[in-house]
Hints:
The protein is mainly β.
Amino acid sequence: MLRRLRTIVFVQAALACLLPLTLCAQNLIPNPGFETPTTGVSPGTPVAYTNFCSAGNSAAAIWTVFVNSCGTNISTTLVPSTLPGGGKYMMHVVTNGNANGIVHCCFTSHTKTLSSAWVYVNSGCVGMGTGNGGDTNNTDEMTCEIGSWIQFKAPNGVSPANEFIVYSVITPGADFYVDNVKVVGTP
């Protein structure tokens, strides 16, 4: 009996070791579903920058925007989420420039991460990247598919990883929604 119990415990322990540790890992991103607005900004109120070339606040707490293509525009707005299983809000991002979007910096640095985000593209192309400060090696995953929710899921392209972005890519500008972001450290 004792031998059988030891075998069962050993098999269960071996199976537990085979499961990805990221299933239960803690999300490194606070406000991942954009449920908390920036102080003083009500949901539905755009936070917009015109002829911009820098970082600024977004409509969601903890999140910022960054404009890499100087002299372009960007706006973010918290709107009711349409993602199945999404929370109350999602982030709406509109920009007329390339490599502009939302940023979360900085979380605890990890050599390896697995990032995911749900995006819905109205126009343009959108990418997600995780990396070191401003170096996210552009994006780890991207889509130009319009009109449906797409889940990005990719390891970080640059190490260490301590920053996460969702940007317009390839085309000059994009109009998109983002919801349910997750970044976890992996072994």
